[in-house]
Specification:
The structure holds three protein chains of three kinds.
Chain A: H1 13-44, H2 61-94, E1 101-108, E2 111-116, E3 129-132, E4 134-138, E5 143-149, E6 154-158, E7 163-167, E8 173-177, E9 183-189, E10 202-207, H3 209-218, H4 223-230
Helix pairs in contact in A: 1-2
Chain B: H1 7-10, H2 18-47, H3 51-55, H4 60-85, H5 89-119, H6 128-159, H7 165-190
Chain C: H1 2-11, H2 18-23, H3 28-58, H4 72-108, H5 116-135, H6 158-161, H7 164-194, H8 207-238, H9 252-286, H10 293-306, H11 322-334, H12 336-350, H13 359-382, H14 384-390, H15 394-424, H16 430-456, H17 475-493, H18 495-508, H19 573-581
Bound molecules: heme-A (2 copies), dinuclear copper ion (CUA) and copper (II) ion (CU).
One heme-A (HEA) sits between chains C (149, 267, 270-271, 313-314, 332, 335-336, 339-340, 343, 372, 375-376, 378-379, 381-382, 387, 390-392, 396, 399-400, 403-404, 407) and A (26-27, 30-31, 34, 74, 77-78).
């Protein structure tokens, strides 16, 4: 359902969409059934002259069935949903596959700072590339992100990845993603963080290997640093 | 303005007097408030072993003395109820005054204790521990104060043999205030 | 009956000034109406705020008639105040306090609440809280704009929120409001436990009273930790403590736990009374006994209990231990069972009925239909895996408007139209009632279905203008925003006929007799409107509240107060004693 509205650009986006589809079908089934019964009863038992309502307490066994059976069936659907949800959750949030590179994402009122590991692929070295409001990654590579905040709570959200994680001051939260589709996409801040929350967007550039190498080469610090910050 | 009671107040379908029922529900709502305070404190305390350094400066003896004071004041509240049950409003009032005396002692000791602590630099902002210390004990002290004031009013009526059933009600509340302190004392003073 | 005389004597005929009668009254009906009118004013205000910020979303940066240009700071303040007002100053006071006060003594067959003066105090504190909230708009820096959830450190430190005074006033207002409802709740619970009419067993209590009482209990049991949290936050704001400040060893997530431990049960606190209102209305207009009364009670209690174990579903991606999410997913999704069962029981009540589509009935049925949508979309959010994507998007927003709007607005309109004759002794105009119904419910779907789609497309919340997000600023998406705004404006305009109908009918409407709907519960025994003391003769109860269409009778209803023809069946005081022993 979701992919018709917004592209998928990470390895787990499809799994999340699949989960949404599953929930949509199960709840959709019940929804349609319930609504159909509802309107049918409304039509069937509309007031007509000379017909008195029936006296039904609902304690009768053969009638209570109509409530207890759905009860059990919904329990079954719930179990399916819970299992599927936990599966997807475990994949996205509880596992950390070996990374090809690690980036650092720092939220502050009201901008994102991204620290790229640079040519040596190590964070906290002299060749780190620091940018504001734009993140460059390579398609098909597994990334770890280290999420931090300088002041209040922000949330690092990349809708095309179906990825979201709050940035909490005082903590470093690590997660992962693997882009699957080149292009430039939105990064949003998804947690109210003050007056400028509405402008706290950024872009993520998912590049092919060649593009990414070119970007790395063209942005060796410190020249880049100055250029990006004044931007 | 003296309102006659509505019929509703005089009914007792549940078999418990309306006043007592209400006090119980007040206590329930207070339990969750203090439950929130204590649960927050306990979780944070576990997460911050270094708070023990701050906790070391609390004066366990003063805390223990205050515990004793509160427990005795609960005893006099029970005795007041007993007197009220016998219909002896005068005696009930006198015993309630003892309880108020206990409350006053408790608050005076508390003020002395806090003054000493603050003068040593342990203010509410000194550390996470001290913040919780003053917050939890402060909310409790506010309840002690409120209870004492209510008891003064009830005692004044009881002296004239009026509304004697209220003696038991404020006693119930007082036991609760006491009980909260029984939780606070080990958590704030003994756990070093 | 002896009590009749007493009731008259007690309430005397002292000449009362207007102020004493309407502003200083301890009469539960007057207090109920005070809550209702305050809630209506606040609803209009909340609706007006929604108008202002929806206009900004549809036409970013343009002048909004009656408001002006909405700045970033103003946008946040409007949204925050809209959410806070709608939940704490509309849904709670109207559903619980207004109808609780008005209905509980009437439906239980007594003359007032057990503590009338505490009841008055409760309203006064509530009124004060509303004034404090509104005052925050006029202080330096303006009202608080950090969302109704007020997450610290943003809410704790003026340097981050830039509204130091506004944040504090917001917090004080909410805390005062809690105090008001704690006082009110104790009154409701005690009255219901102790002051039922002779003969009224637990299973003879109308569902709406049960629901309001259960809601009061859930509220009381969940709000405590947030009261503690509010004190901590207040200290952080004004004394400089660091309960929630990570830079000095505090923990911002602690607030989230305290807030949502209350916040989730809170949604059922407002859901249950609305469900109760709907139960009264569908039984009356389907002329049917409620299908399986005890099942309804059981599901309500089950929902209440479960609601204490789901709170972290608001915090899946907030930085909590990811293993916790699995637990909370399970509890959250399981809550669908009692709620589905409750809805199914209501729908089953229609079976075999003789359904009359009066205005209150239309509202009640619309509640069931719309709430179903809100309910099933909750499951998408309860599943941790999909909430990673949906969290803080307009999908969440549409989900909770599809629950809250049916509850707070549709449910309230159902109740107002149903009990209007009792409140004012006159009938509302049916034609205008129906026009208002369709003019509200259709545009409502027109507002929030587009917002579901926008949310599914990744649009997130509390953004004053989407121009900074290229993916969200496409013409198609902007078009959906405009549709939503237009529908919201249409819906608001359709409230005008309602207000006119309300005032005109209250003053000049067709006179109503005591029991215009031929319903069974005790409030319909009292005159319309009931005088001081409610019942000329205090009633005794002989049967359950939903004896419609009983085969032994010619009449298709059988009021609770009517003694059985066969005297031997009479339930007397003995019934009360037996029940006390239970
Ligand atoms: C009264 C209001 C109300 C009600 C009743 C509900 C009911 C539910 N809510 Fe909702 N919710 C809110 C008000 C409400 N909510 C608000 C205000 C927020 C946002 C707060 C904020 O962030 O500002 C929110 C947010 C919210 C979130 C957090 C989203 C996020 O921020 O990421 C979640 C997640 O689990 C959730 C879940 C649910 C569930 C599972 C139910 C369940 O109770 C629904 C159960 C009902 C049904 C399921 C329908 C009937 C069942 C069937 C027809 C059977 C078929 C079903 C199955 C097979 C499963 N809600
Ligand atoms: C009870 C709850 C409730 C209700 C009824 C509403 C009603 C409406 N809401 Fe609200 N809304 C919230 C609770 C509610 N909202 C909350 C909690 C938030 C989150 C805030 C935050 O993020 O911090 C929110 C946020 C919110 C946003 C998101 C803003 C953002 O994130 O940027 C939007 C956007 O469209 C919106 C729109 C609307 C609209 C158009 C209505 C319309 O339906 C309004 C129509 C108004 C009326 C119909 C009132 C008419 C009243 C009368 C005629 C008086 C009659 C009397 C009684 C009924 C008592 N709301
Ligand atoms: Cu940063 Cu919102
Ligand atoms: Cu919830």
């Amino acid at each position: 359902m979701i992919e018709r509205l917004i592209p998928r650009a990470s390895t787990f986006a499809g799994d999340i969409d699949g989960l949404i589809l599953l929930i949509g079908s199960l709840t959709g089934f019940w929804f349609v059934l319930t609504v159909a019964t509802f309107f049918w009863l409304l039509w069937r038992y509309r007031a007509r002259d000379g017909r008195k309502a029936q006296y039904v307490t609902g304690e009768e066994k053969h009638l209570k069935r109509w409530v207890t059976w759905p009860h059990m069936l919904i329990l079954g659907c719930d179990v399916l949903i819970i299992v599927a949800a936990i599966n997807v959750w475990a994949e996205v949030k509880q596992t950390l596959p070996e990374p090809d590179a690690t980036i650092r994402v720092i939220g502050q009122q009201w901008a994102w700072t991204f620290v790229h590991p640079g040519p040596d692929n190590q964070l906290d070295t002299a060749d780190d590339i620091v940018t504001v409001d734009e993140l460059h990654v390579e398609v098909g590579k597994t990334y770890h992100y280290q999420l931090e905040s300088e002041d209040v709570i922000h949330s690092f959200s990349v809708p095309v990845f179906r990825l979201k994680q709050d940035a909490v001051p005082g903590r470093r939260i690590t997660g992962w993603f693997e882009p699957t589709r080149a292009g430039a996409y939105d990064i949003q801040c998804a947690e109210m963080c003050g007056i400028g929350h509405g402008i706290m967007g950024a872009r993520i550039h998912v590049e092919t290997a060649a593009q990414h190498a070119a970007w790395l080469a063209g942005n060796a610090p410190p020249s880049v640093l100055a250029a990006n910050v004044t931007e | 303005m003296s309102h006659a009671k509505p019929i509703a107040t005089t009914r007792s379908a549940a078999g418990i007097s309306t006043g007592k029922l209400a006090v119980w529900w007040v206590i329930v709502s207070e339990i969750v408030i203090f439950g929130g305070v204590l649960a927050s404190y306990t979780m944070q305390r576990i997460g911050h072993p270094e708070w023990a350094e701050s906790a070391a400066y609390t004066n366990t003896w003063i805390g223990a003395f205050n515990t004793l004071v509160l427990l005795s004041s609960s005893l006099t509240a029970v005795l007041a109820h007993a007197a009220a049950a016998r219909g002896d409003g005068k005696l009930a009032a006198r015993r309630l005054y003892y309880t108020v005396g206990g409350a006053t002692t408790f608050l005076l000791v508390k003020s002395y204790e806090w003054t000493m602590e603050i003068s040593h630099g342990f203010t509410i902002t000194a550390s996470g521990f001290w913040s919780f210390y003053y917050m939890a004990a402060g909310i409790h002290a506010a309840h002690v104060l409120a209870g004492a004031i209510v008891m003064l009013f009830i005692a004044a009526r009881a002296k004239k043999n009026e509304e004697l059933q209220r003696v038991e009600l404020c006693g119930l509340y007082w036991h609760f205030v006491d009980l909260v302190w029984i939780f606070l004392f080990p958590l704030l003073y003994i756990a070093k | 009956m002896a009590t009749a005389g007493t009731a008259e004597a007690l309430h005397g005929h002292r000449e009362e000034t207007w102020v004493i009668k309407y502003l200083w009254s301890t009469d539960h009906k007057i207090i109920g109406l005070q809550y209702l009118f305050t809630g209506m004013v606040m609803a209009l205000l909340g609706g007006f705020f929604a108008y202002a910020f929806r206009m900004q979303l549809a036409f970013p940066g343009e002048h909004v008639p009656l408001w002006g240009v909405v700045s970033q700071a103003e946008y946040n303040q409007l949204v925050t105040s809209h959410g806070t007002i709608m939940i704490f100053w509309v849904a709670m006071p109207v559903l619980i306090a207004a109808f609780g006060n008005f209905l509980i003594p009437l439906m239980l067959g007594c003359d007032d609440m057990v503590f009338p003066r505490i009841n008055r105090l409760s309203f006064q504190i509530f009124l004060l809280s509303a004034v404090v909230l509104l005052a925050s708009f006029f202080v330096e820096g303006g009202a608080f704009g950090g969302a109704w959830t007020a997450y610290p450190p943003l809410s704790a430190q003026g340097q981050y929120s830039l509204t130091p005074l506004g944040s504090t006033l917001w917090l004080v207002a909410v805390a005062l409001e809690f105090v008001a409802f704690l006082l009110g709740g104790i009154n409701f619970i005690t009255t219901t436990m102790n002051s039922r009419a002779p003969g009224m067993k637990f299973t003879d209590i109308p569902i709406v009273v049960w629901m309001i009482v259960l809601a009061s209990i859930i509220f009381m049991a969940s709000v405590g930790p947030l009261v503690a949290g509010a004190i901590m936050l207040l200290f952080d704001q004004s004394l400089g403590t660091h309960f929630f400040d990570p830079a000095a060893g505090g923990d911002p997530l602690l607030w989230q736990h305290l807030f949502w431990f209350f916040g989730h049960p809170e949604v059922y606190v407002v859901l249950l009374p609305a469900m109760g209102i709907v139960a009264e209305i569908i039984t009356t207009f389907a002329r049917k006994k409620l299908f399986a009364y005890k099942v309804v009670l059981g599901t309500a209690i089950a929902t209440g209990v479960l609601s204490f174990f789901v709170w972290a579903h608001h915090q899946f991606v907030a930085g909590i231990d990811p293993r916790m999410a699995n637990l909370f997913t399970a509890t959250t999704v399981l809550i669908s069972i009692p709620i589905a069962e409750m809805l199914f029981v209501y729908i089953a009540t229609l079976y075999g009925g003789s359904i009359r589509f009066t205005t209150p009935m239309l509202w009640a049925l619309a509640f069931l239909f719309e709430f179903l949508i809100g309910g099933v979309t909750g499951i998408f959010l309860g599943a941790s895996g999909s909430d990673i994507y949906f969290h803080d998007t307009y999908f969440v927003l549409a989900h909770f408007h599809y629950t809250f709007f049916p509850i707070a607005i549709i449910g309230t309109f159902a109740a107002i139209t149903y009990w209007f004759p009792k409140m004012f002794g006159r009938h509302l105009n049916e034609t205008w009632g129906k026009i208002h119904f369709w003019g509200t419910v259709l545009p409502f779907n027109g507002v929030f279905i587009p917002l579901f789609i926008l949310g599914a497309a990744g649009q997130h919340r509390r953004i004053y203008s989407y121009e900074h997000f290229p993916e969200l600023f496409t013409p198609e998406m902007q078009e959906l925003r405009v549709i939503a705004t237009v529908c919201a404006v249409v819906m608001l305009l359709f409230q005008i006929p309602f207000l006119i109908n309300f005032v005109a009918s209250a003053l000049r409407g067709r006179k109503a007799d005591a029991n215009p709907w031929k319903a069974n519960t005790l409030e319909w025994l009292a005159p319309s409107p009931p005088g001081h003391g409610n019942f000329p003769v205090m009633p005794t109860v002989y049967r359950g509240p939903y004896e419609y269409g009983h085969p032994d009778r010619d009449e298709d209803y059988w009021p609770q107060w009517e003694p059985p023809a066969d005297e031997s069946h009479e339930r007397s005081e003995g019934g009360v004693a037996a029940e006390a022993a239970e």
